[in-house]
Structures are given as structure tokens and as C-alpha cells.
Amino acid sequence: AQKVTQAQTEISVVEKEDVTLDCVYETRDTTYYLFWYKQPPSGELVFLIRRNSFDEQNEISGRYSWNFQKSTSSFNFTITASQVVDSAVYFCALSEGEQGAQKLVFGQGTRLTINP
Amino acid sequence: DSGVTQTPKHLITATGQRVTLRCSPRSGDLSVYWYQQSLDQGLQFLIQYYNGEERAKGNILERFSAQQFPDLHSELNLSSLELGDSALYFCASSFQGNSYNEQFFGPGTRLTVL
User: Fold this and answer.
1) Would you tell me which of B9, B21, B66, B97 could form a disulfide with B31, CB atoms 3.0–4.6 Å apart?
2) In Å, how far is B100's CA from the nearest CA of chain A?
3) CA atoms of B29 and B71, how far apart (whole Å)
């Protein structure tokens, strides 16, 4: 069965520090997709990024960057120069499913608190 | 705002009762998904519909059922409610229903069973 592990339950840092959220996944599929979602205090889940298993290029979007390493089955997320507004629960997810079907398997989430 | 709407926002009911949660997908999206978020189980996939047809099923209890209507809105029915069903229920939608599609989530319905 597919599984996503986010070992860090909670992280607390001071504003402007860099922080990395870890995500390790397990799958037997050769084609799969990985996602990160953000859940701010308001509760709604916000899509951040999607990565497919054939594309190991790192991605940067502003202060956010993602490091995908197939060899270690990891898809880590780094926030550079963190801000208070980054405080949220972050979920890593793995997509399984054949054509026309999709089940997102989520990790347990990492609660990130950025202190001023 | 993701464009996915869910009603009601909050629901308080008693054990043994039945409730219906409603979801309207983003304009143009054909696939709808239901998830349950609880403290002990985390975020769990329940069921997926695509254009009115069931496409994938997760750990959905037999007491729970869902459907997607011709106008593409979806309803999740929860019956014989138990205390453990108290959770945040999310609906999500995507254009198609493939494994590479990003899903857009609604604000959720918080269900409290007393």
C-alpha cells in the first residue's frame, strides 16, 4: 500500500529563519504524483505544488522550494526567510489511481509556527 | 477562494441521526472527491465521482454514501451517526479525475455528533 510519512509533527521557528519540511513516501508504482498542500488556520486546504515521478528537477517559487529525490523517496519543502503568514499545517500527498481515478494519500501533516 | 462551495459550514447533531453534506465543484470541474479529517485518523480519502459515476473508493463506512447529480454537485450522506464520526469533511474537485490532477478543496463542513 502507498504511504506518506511526515515525521515532523510540529516545527517552531523565528521569523526570517529558513525551514525544511520533510516528506518520505512509499509506492510500488513507477508513475506517481506528489503534492503539497497548505492548511492555514482558516481551515481550507490550498494546493501548492504537484510533481510527477519522472521529473526530478527542483522547483522554486518565490520563497518556496521543493527538492524531489527519487533515490531516497523524499519530496521535501523549504521555506526561505519564513514569515508569520507561513504559519499553517502543511501536508504532503501521494496520488495513486489508474486512469480516470485518483485517491490522494496524505501524510499526517506538519504544523509550522513562525514566531515574530 | 478555491471556487468549491460546501454547505453547511457547521452541523451539530445527535448520535443515531442522519445528515447530508452538500458540495458544488468549481465551474468546469467534472470530478468530485470527499475526505474526512479527524485528529486520530488525519486526512482520509472517502470516495470519488466523475461526471456522475463512482470512480474510486477509500475507507468509506457502509453507513456513509455519496452521489453526484447531473448538475455535478455532490452530496455525502452520513447515517446512524456515532461520536467518532465527528470530523471536518472536505469536498474537492478537479477538471478530470486522473492521478495527476490537482484537487481544489472547499472550506469543509465541521460535523459534531453529541
Assistant:
1) B97
2) 6
3) 11
